[in-house]
C-alpha cells in the first residue's frame, strides 16, 4: 500500500529474540510482473548482515504464468524455498482467481512445496468497500465492515475445495474468525476420517487470540487505525477464546505474528479512506507471552501444547525439524528458558520494536522468557538483551516435508530413536493433544523452556489429582556419580524426541 514497515530485519529479529522467538520465516512479496527470483534475492540482501537470529523465507505468487512455474521450481531446487503464498484478496494487486490458484496448488504438489493462502473473498471486499465509501463510512471501522466473517469463511471453504480437487496440501495463514476456523476444522475432520490424517493446516495469530475489535476502547481514529489488519480483528469478544480452544483441540496447528508494523503517520495515509490504511500490526515480540497468558494461564492450553503450537508444529510443517523444534545432538542450540512466574506489562514505551504503538498495550502477562539462546549464544539474560546484528543465517527449507506429504502425525516418533536403546538419555515424544508435562519443558524455534514447573493457573490441575508435574529425575545426582546411569525415560514432553541431558 505504498508504505514500508518500520521494523527492518535488525529491529524485527531483535524484538523476536526479546520475546522468546529464535527463528522467523518472512514473506517475499514480489510486485505483479516482477521476477520471483529477483524479489527473493532482494529479500536476502535486505536480511544479510542485519538478522539477529536465523530466518527462512516464503515467496508470494502475485500472478500465474509458465515463467512463474519455472521460477518456483528454481527456488525449490536451488534456493531453499518450500512454500508459496497466494492471495484471494487485494484485487488488482495480489489476488489470484480460482484457475490460477488451482495451477499454483498443482505446481506446489509437483514440487513437494506447501501452498499457503490468505483466504478472503477479494471480489466481495472490493464491492463492499465501494459501497461503504459511497455511503460516507470512511473511518477504520469500515475496514472490518467490508470484510465480515462469512467473507473469510467462504474463501477458506473455496481454498480447501481447490486443495482437495488437486490433491495438494494447504496451509491457511492467519485464521481470524469463528466461521473460518469451523470451516477449516470440517475439512480436517473429513480428511482424518478418510485418510487417517489431514494435509490441511491452519494458523492463527497472537493478535486474534490476544485482543479483539472493541469500539468502546478504540475511540480515536489513530487507535482504531493501529488495529487495522487483514483479515480484521473481530468484534465478537468470544473470538479469542474460541480460537484458543481450536488450537487446544488441534483444529488449528500454529500461531504466527504476521508482524507488519507501520507508524501512526503511515497509517494516516488512509485518513479519509479506510481502504488506504496500510494493513498490519505488531506481534513478533509479544506472541509467546500473549499466547501463554491467554492460553496456558487461562487453563485452555497445557504447556506442552503451547510448545507445539508456537514452535514444533511449524518446524515440522516447513521441514526444518529436527534442526529446529527439537533439542538433540545435531540440532541448533536455539533454546528458551521460560519463567511461568515472571510478569510483564506490554507497552510501546518498553518494547523493542520501532513502531510507536502496541495493540496489546497495558496487558499484564504471566510467563516471560528469562533466557534466550540463539545458536548457543545467550542473547537474553534475565531481561538484558544482548543481540548481535548479522549473527543469524538463512535456513534453507527442503521440499517434500515428511510431516506434510507422508501424513506423519505429531504423535509419531522417528523410527531410528525407537529402535535404539540409549543410556543416559531422556526420550521426548510429542502427543497430539493432552500431554502431562514433565518437570522441565524445553524445545527449539521460538519455544518455551520451563524448569521445575508447577502451574497454578485455573484448569491445570484439579484438587485430588496426582501432581503430574513432579519427577523423580535428578540431573545433579547423575553428574555427581560418573558411573551411575539414568534409568528414567521420560515420555511425552513437548517438542519431539531428544537425546542427552537438558
Automatic annotation (TrEMBL):
Tell me the keywords, alphabetical order: Hydrolase, Metal-binding, Zinc
Gene Ontology cellular component terms for the protein in this record: cytosol
In its keyword annotation, does this UniProt entry include Zinc? yes
Q: Residues bearing N6-carboxylysine? A: 85
- Where is the Amidohydrolase-related domain positioned along the sequence? 7-378
- Top-rank EC class of the record's enzyme: hydrolase
InterPro entries given in the database record: Amidohydro-rel, Hydantoinase/dihydroPyrase, Metal-dep_hydrolase_composite, Metal_Hydrolase, Metallo-dep_Hydrolases_sf
This protein is called what? dihydropyrimidinase
Q: What is the lineage of its organism?
A: Eukaryota, Metazoa, Ecdysozoa, Arthropoda, Hexapoda
